[in-house]
Design a protein that fits this description.
- It is found in: Membrane.
- This protein has 367 residues and is α+β, with helices and mostly antiparallel strands.
- It has three domains: 116 residues; 84 residues, Signal transduction histidine kinase, dimerisation/phosphotransfer (DHp) domain (Helix Hairpins, Orthogonal Bundle); 141 residues, Heat Shock Protein 90, CATH 3.30.565.
- The protein contains nine helices and seven strands.
- Helix 5 packs parallel to helix 9 and helix 8 runs antiparallel to helix 9.
- The radius of gyration is 36 Å and the shape is elongated.
Length: 367
């Protein structure tokens, strides 16, 4: 017979289980935004709960077996008791395991559907927050990747229309002028020759940009060498002295006389040339400064700068801050993309930061 001591023992176990459950819920409630949103915490809580649940179920099952089964069928009751114990031992972890699996199954299902949509070139898919930190971190990175792919896809689609427009404008002008001259509508004057030459140079520049970008993406077999940076930059400034004067820009150097940079000569020349051309075309600055520190090369101006939202995309192919397609402020948007390719080919990194005023290009180099 079951005495009062057993019921007291059962009551103690039940109270302990209740206290443990309340403590767990209190902790999860207090730190709801920290540990509870972790998958590992939820599974650990289920595993922790399995102990008290089993301790409660076993005495209860003993009571049921003692009162119902064993009194009626002694031999069969033994098998029934064994079956109940096995059911408790296996059923409790199974039920809790299914609950734990639910925490994993739904996010994985959504992730799988998002990947399937991505395979169908659907770049608009976004994964919602699940309230589980491990999955939310992965979903956030996936959403960022989708955003970048969507941006790349837009640039790729714009390439055809942009290139077509940039090539079509000078070609149309040239064909119109030559046709009129051929039909005798316009005389062949120096002004028209200059116009035709100007449009031909525009075509040549576009083709040169495309070729330069393609070349920049190819591995450079040229060997790096030690370059005295100050005279190198002085030569660059002298080359653009007339353009700088016309734009009203003063060039300054903040580079030590003995500063030496180990780089491919042609790549470094193209990098600084493109940055200088970018400044001349777009900055509206009055001053440009080239500065060298231990492991950085800074190319900055005091011009109008660019919107903050454009900074991450300045080095993207075919990206233009000014979406106009005029020759002065348009173009294919390959100049800075070429710079990035050349910079990375040297094992360096480049970024753009707001200069307040102006814009600063920061090259992290191995001097």
């Amino acid at each position: 017979m079951i005495g009062p001591g057993f019921y007291f023992f059962l009551l103690c176990i039940f109270m302990i289980a209740v206290i443990v459950a309340i403590a767990i819920m209190a902790i999860l409630g207090i730190f709801k935004r920290s540990p509870y949103d972790r998958l590992s915490t939820r599974i650990a809580a289920l595993i922790l709960a399995s102990g008290p649940i089993t301790l409660i179920l076993i005495p209860v099952s003993n009571e049921l077996i003692g009162r119902v089964l064993l009194n009626a069928f002694t031999t069969k009751g033994s098998f029934a008791a064994l079956a109940i114990y096995v059911l408790i031992a296996l059923g409790t972890p199974l039920v809790l395991g299914l609950l734990a699996a639910r925490f994993v199954r739904r996010p994985l299902h959504q992730f799988n559907e998002a990947i399937a949509s991505l395979e169908q070139s659907n770049y608009k898919v976004q994964l919602p927050s699940m309230g589980i930190r491990e999955f939310d971190e992965v979903f956030m990175r996936f959403n960022n990747l989708i955003h970048r792919l969507r941006h790349e896809e837009k640039l790729r689609k714009d390439l055809i229309s942009d290139t077509s427009h940039e090539l079509n404008t000078p070609l149309t002008t040239m064909i119109g002028q030559l046709t009129a001259i051929q039909e005798g509508k316009y005389p062949m004057t120096q002004e028209r020759v200059a116009t035709l030459k100007d449009q031909a140079e525009r075509l040549a520049e576009l083709v040169q940009q495309l070729g330069a970008y393609t070349k920049a993406r190819m591995p450079d077999t040229g060997q790096p060498e030690d370059i005295h940076l100050r005279p190198f930059c002085e030569e660059l400034i002298n080359h653009y002295s007339l353009d700088l004067k016309q734009k009203g820009i003063t060039a300054k150097l903040d580079i030590a006389e003995d500063y030496i940079i180990h780089a491919n000569y042609g790549a470094l020349q193209q990098i600084l040339t493109n940055l200088m051309q970018n400044t001349l075309r777009y900055s509206q600055a009055t001053e440009v400064t080239i500065e060298a520190t231990a492991h950085k090369l800074l190319f900055s101006d005091n011009g109008k700068g660019v919107p903050a939202k454009s900074l991450p995309y300045l080095f993207e192919r075919f990206y233009r801050v000014d979406q106009s397609r005029s020759r002065t402020t348009g173009g294919l948007g390959l100049g800075l993309a070429i710079v990035r390719e050349l910079v990375e080919s040297q094992g360096w990194a480049i970024s753009a930061v707001a200069g307040h005023p102006g814009l600063t290009f920061v090259l992290k180099i191995n001097a």
